[in-house]
Fold this protein.
Amino acid sequence: MALTADQVRADFPGLARRVHERLLVYLDNSATSPTPRPVRQAIDDFYNLYSANVHRGLHTLSEEATAAFEGARARTAAFVGASGPEAVVFTRGSTSAINLVARSWGESLGPGDAILLSVAEHHGNLVPWQMLAARRGVELRFLELTPAGTLDLSALERLLTPEVKLVALAQVSNVLGYELPVATIVAAARAVGARVLLDAAQSVGHLPVDFGALGVDFLAFSAHKMCGPTGLGCLVARPELLEAMEPIEGGGDMIVHVGLHKSTWNRSPFKFEAGTPPIAQAIGLAAAIDYLEGVGLEWIAEHTRDLCDEAAARLAELPGVRVVGPLTGRLGPVAFTMTGVHPHDIATILDGEGVAIRAGHHCAQPLHELLGLESTARASFYLTNQPSDIDALIDALEMVRKVFG
């Protein structure tokens, strides 16, 4: 790593602000990570110096914008180990990317086909498949949890039959924090001829992710969870699958020719990007990738795991606190409950102490219902956090205990 943790934090001036007269401790990275100066600068440069539309303009600004935008696509492809820029489709976010697969590739499925998910999936990797099941009569199957709060892979042989055409799972759970053994999943899926979609919203930018080496077919992630801007995500897919898929939105830039009654589509990935694309956001994503690689993905992963292990261990020592999910091996989120205190009250009191966490079902209602919980509190860690943030979290929870007796 070329930088120290303190040097990393210096690139995030928002972390130096005070909230309720307390120095901010930001522990909501699984929802949205802070954005460092170089990313904001890259976006500002676009708007200040060459703000123009892409692909169709012949003037200098448009050519500069096009070069930066398509350069961002190539940068993203290289970052995640895709075959090339043709494998990267820019979307509104990871949820939008998964919906694209469900609305296009998924339309080839029908009665007798099945999709394998897990009970711990984010709604973004559950609801699109529910909608597909309602449209096409597809069966949904689910991996359950072990008592330790990880996926029960012992059920793979029973659930993965030839009827399963797709396995769609999160690489890192946004509640339980476990890391999926992707190689095991891919090998089992390939044995029955199933495709694999990886929801990598909580993993890309947090640890090295190599699309080609993983051997999956689809990969979805969001820029705003990896130090990039909001409003942008990516679908990375095998080019031959994209070429065979139909676009789900029509309009400018996704066409080659338009007649009054019929149009012909552009090649992939452009046929999936109707209208003016998220130019500034893509440029910001490329800057975020440069930043994360400068810090070092291996360091970020190790640093985050260490913080999660320490936080989970210290939370588990507090009277009345239950850590939801495994106590070790987490990457990012550490969800917990406190006897007699609603998670929303925990979050509100912690905010008064300058500690920002998340409270709710974290877009994982079925998981919480399975665990017998309405909601949880969630502290989530990333490259900007340090052990003193865990101290602040524990101290703030003592205030919660005082308020609720």
Summary: The domain at 5-30+297-403 is CATH 3.90.1150.10 (Aspartate Aminotransferase, domain 1). The longest strand covers residues 164-170. The two ends are 45 Å apart (CA to CA).
